[in-house]
């Protein structure tokens, strides 16, 4: 898969400590809105991981265009500068790729194809979404391609190590 020049030269301010071992994620439009428009505190850990280079975000121009077309809707309450700022924040955080070929998974929403196709083509660690059409593909994407699809809350829960349970027998009767 061809990566455009933006992907080979990411904004150094957006990925200050980038490493080859960073997790690779794709965010759908609703997750980007939660982060960049609504400043949802549930995405604070994700934003920090991106900003410290522990996560690399991947996208296509079509994904960025979809966000740009959604963020200007009046019900979001952003003025022209706010929309432009949100789009710039998004662009500065992604590694841009050419569109991916059809992965042949049965996605019921044609607008979501670009997300699942890129996730499968890149074999990302996570595709984060709140979209039911994408979330319905969790099992099949996981089994066939080892790509996890989930909500930001699913991702966050997976980052917390399981508790250590002491199974040592007690000396007490």
How is the secondary structure organized here?
Blueprint: H1 5-8, E1 23-27, H2 29-36, H3 44-51, E2 55-60, H4 61-71, H5 80-91, E3 94-97, H6 113-122, E4 126-128, H7 132-135, H8 138-145, E5 148-150, H9 152-159
Parallel strand pairs: 1-2, 1-4, 2-3, 4-5
Helix pairs in contact: 4-5
Task: Summarize, please.
With 173 residues, this protein is an alpha/beta fold. The protein is built from 9 helices and 5 strands.
What does it look like?
It is a single chain. Helix content is 42%, strand content 12%. It is an alpha/beta fold. Strands 3-2-1-4-5 form a five-stranded parallel sheet, with helices on both faces. Helix 4 runs antiparallel to helix 5. The N and C termini lie far apart (64 Å).
* Mean pLDDT, all residues: 87
**Counting H and I runs of at least 4 residues, what is the number of helices?**
9
The spatial strand order of the largest sheet comes to 3-2-1-4-5
How is the main sheet built? Answer: 5 strands, parallel
List keywords for this structure.
alpha/beta; 9 helices; 5 strands; 42% helix
């Amino acid at each position: 898969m061809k990566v455009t020049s933006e992907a080979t030269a990411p904004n150094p301010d957006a990925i200050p400590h980038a490493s080859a071992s960073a997790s690779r994620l794709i965010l759908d439009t609703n997750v980007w809105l939660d982060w960049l428009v609504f400043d949802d505190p549930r995405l604070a850990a994700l934003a920090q991981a991106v900003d410290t280079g522990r996560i690399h975000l991947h996208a296509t121009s079509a994904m960025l265009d979809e966000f740009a077309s959604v963020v200007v809707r009046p019900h979001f309450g952003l003025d022209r500068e706010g929309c432009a700022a949100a789009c710039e924040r998004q662009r500065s955080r992604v590694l841009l790729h050419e569109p991916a070929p059809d992965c042949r998974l049965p996605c019921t929403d044609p607008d979501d194809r670009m997300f699942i196709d890129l996730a499968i083509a890149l074999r990302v660690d996570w595709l984060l979404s709140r979209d039911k059409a994408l979330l319905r593909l969790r099992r099949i994407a996981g089994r066939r391609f080892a790509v996890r699809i989930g909500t930001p809350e699913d991702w966050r829960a997976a980052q917390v190590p399981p508790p250590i349970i002491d199974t040592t027998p007690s000396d007490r009767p």
